[in-house]
Every structure is written in structure tokens, then in C-alpha cells.
């Protein structure tokens, strides 16, 4: 898979996640956040399990104790992402949630520099700021005073940045994208369901009423989209991945307009344009630089 194809895969994951915001919000009318997260990732685990087993048979890389610890770590991180986001949606809007979650666009390259000592391509920094500005304008450019849900969603962005960074590291080391996906789903499902049994009431009627949302986010937003994220990150950097994944806010707003009748303001359309420009920049500029280096190398090898 080429880097361009990988980034398109990440864009598709962002589109699926965008639809998940609507489902996550409406599900809160009938079911608690812990049960919702636990059930969605239990479904995702079951959905990905056969493919992970097939991948394991074909893989030449055996799972080591280190890999197991890394799988557990990314599972804990994903649990942090989903719980803070889902509980946050109880006291914040879908618009605020999508904007604040998108803060990982800036946090991921900071992690790369501070903790991994990896400087991303220079275009990532203006691209990240453009994407973040685009998300802000898409939210209407008018953020109210931070609520408890907003603060939780900021923590969600930090966990998201950690999950994206870890995913890139682990999949590069193991080459087993589907095994990684299944492992983080299973850890998240177990932790959420264990907590739900203790602190949240549940009934079959609540599960039945929330079943469409649970199935959508379980199969598509979780099973498919997170797996696409891991697959795409095998062939691109975490910083570039964060920018393409941030398109979830763009698609979330579009689906909100179609499904829920929400309207996108003029500022929102400007934000959409900025996000698309950011994605094009981080795709085109490194490609131009790479081709120039190749041409320069060919010229130096064949001076006559």
C-alpha cells in the first residue's frame, strides 16, 4: 500500500467515525455510557476475531510478552478515549465534542517531538493548525464556557493522541494490524462492561432501544474504522494520520445536517475548505519533496 492509499484509508475511517458521533449522542437517551461502550466493543471484538486469527496464522511475527503488554497499554488508552468521550457527550454538544476531540491533531506531533524525538515533516505543523482551525470554524466559531463534558472531551483528545501514537509504534513492530485492533477492542470491552455492572443499571428494553446505535458503532465505527486506522498507519506517520482522521468532525457535521437537520454556517463551510486544504498540503508537499530528491539523485548519478 502506498502512502497516498494509506491516507485515503484513514480518511475513510474518519468518515465512519463522523457518523458515529450522531449514534453515540442519540444512544444516551436510553442506555448508560459504560454499557454502550462495553457492548459496542464486545461486538467489535467478535467481528474482527476471525480475521485476526487468519492474520495470526499467516504472520511470521510471533506474539511476545512485550507485544502483549503493548496490546494491553493501547487497550487501556482506547478505553480512556471512549469513556471520556461518551460520558462527556452527556453534558456537551456533538459540535463541541467533535471540535475538542480534534485537538489530537496538534497533540500527536507534540508527542512525536517530546517523547519519541521524531520531528515530523515541517508541513505537518501548519497542516495541523489549519485542520484545528477548520474544526473550530465548523463548530460555528462560538465555543461556550467549558462544561464538565467539554473538560472530559479534552482528556479524550489527549488519550486519542496517545492511542494514535501507540498504534503507529505497535503496528510497525508487529505488522499485525487486525490482531492489534482485536486486542484493544477486547480490553476496552472487558473494562467497560466490568465497570457498567457495578455502577450502571441496565435492562433488556434499554439494550433493545439502543440496538441500532450499538450495532452501527460496534461494527462500523469500532470494528471497521479502528481497523482501517491501524492498517493505514502501517504506511504513514502518526502526525499525518492525525490530520486525516480529524476529518471525522467534517463528516460528523455533514451527517448531522442530513440526519438531524442541523445547519452548517458560512464559517462552517470555510472550516471545511481549510480541513481539505490541510489534507492536500500534508499529502502533496512531502510527495513533491520526495520526487525532487529522486530527480536530484538521478541527475547526480547521470551528470552527462
From TrEMBL:
SUPFAM superfamilies attached to this UniProt entry: Multidrug resistance efflux transporter EmrE
Membrane-traversing stretches: 33-56, 68-87, 99-116, 123-139, 151-171, 183-207, 213-231, 243-261, 267-285
Top-level division of the source organism's lineage: Bacteria
Localization terms from the record: Cell membrane
Keywords: Cell membrane, Membrane, Transmembrane, Transmembrane helix
Primary location group: membrane
DNA-binding found in the keyword field: no
A Pfam family annotated for this UniProt entry: EamA
Record GO cellular component, one term: plasma membrane
Presence of keyword Cell membrane: yes
InterPro entries named in the record: Diverse_Substrate_Transporter, EamA_dom, EmrE-like
Occurrences of domain EamA (ranges): 7-139, 151-282
Membrane topology of the entry: Multi-pass membrane protein
PANTHER family named in the record: EAMA DOMAIN-CONTAINING PROTEIN, OS03G0707200 PROTEIN-RELATED
Protein name (record): Drug/metabolite transporter (DMT)-like permease
Organism: Rhizobium metallidurans
Amino acid at each position: 500500500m502506498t502512502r497516498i492509499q494509506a491516507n485515503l484509508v484513514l480518511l475513510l475511517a474518519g468518515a465512519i467515525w463522523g457518523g458515529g458521533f450522531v449514534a453515540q449522542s442519540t444512544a444516551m437517551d436510553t442506555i448508560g455510557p459504560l454499557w454502550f461502550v462495553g457492548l459496542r466493543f464486545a461486538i467489535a471484538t467478535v467481528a474482527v476475531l476471525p480475521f485476526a486469527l487468519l492474520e495470526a496464522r499467516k504472520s511470521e511475527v510471533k506474539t511476545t510478552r512485550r507485544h502483549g503488554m503493548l496490546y494491553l497499554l493501547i487497550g487501556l488508552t482506547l478505553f480512556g478515549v471512549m469513556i471520556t468521550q461518551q460520558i462527556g457527550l452527556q453534558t456537551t454538544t456533538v459540535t463541541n465534542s467533535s471540535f475538542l476531540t480534534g485537538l489530537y491533531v496538534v497533540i500527536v506531533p507534540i508527542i512525536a517531538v517530546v517523547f519519541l524525538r521524531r520531528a515530523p515533516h515541517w508541513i505537518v505543523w501548519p497542516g495541523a493548525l489549519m485542520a484545528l482551525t477548520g474544526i473550530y470554524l465548523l463548530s460555528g466559531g462560538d465555543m461556550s464556557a467549558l462544561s464538565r463534558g467539554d473538560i472530559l472531551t479534552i482528556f479524550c483528545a489527549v488519550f486519542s493522541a496517545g492511542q494514535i501514537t501507540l498504534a503507529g509504534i505497535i503496528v510497525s513492530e508487529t505488522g499485525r494490524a487486525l490482531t492489534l485492533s482485536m486486542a484493544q477492542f477486547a480490553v476496552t470491552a472487558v473494562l467497560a462492561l466490568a465497570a457498567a455492572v457495578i455502577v450502571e443499571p441496565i435492562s433488556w428494553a434499554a439494550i433493545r432501544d439502543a440496538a441500532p446505535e450499538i450495532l452501527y458503532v460496534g461494527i462500523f465505527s469500532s470494528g471497521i474504522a479502528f481497523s482501517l486506522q491501524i492498517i493505514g498507519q502501517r504506511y504513514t506517520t502518526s502526525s499525518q494520520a492525525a490530520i486525516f482522521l480529524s476529518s471525522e468532525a467534517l463528516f460528523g457535521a455533514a451527517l448531522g445536517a442530513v440526519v438531524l437537520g442541523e445547519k452548517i454556517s458560512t464559517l462552517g463551510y470555510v472550516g471545511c475548505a481549510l480541513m481539505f486544504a490541510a489534507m492536500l498540503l500534508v499529502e502533496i508537499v512531502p510527495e513533491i519533496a520526495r520526487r525532487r530528491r529522486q530527480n536530484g539523485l538521478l541527475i547526480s548519478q547521470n551528470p552527462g
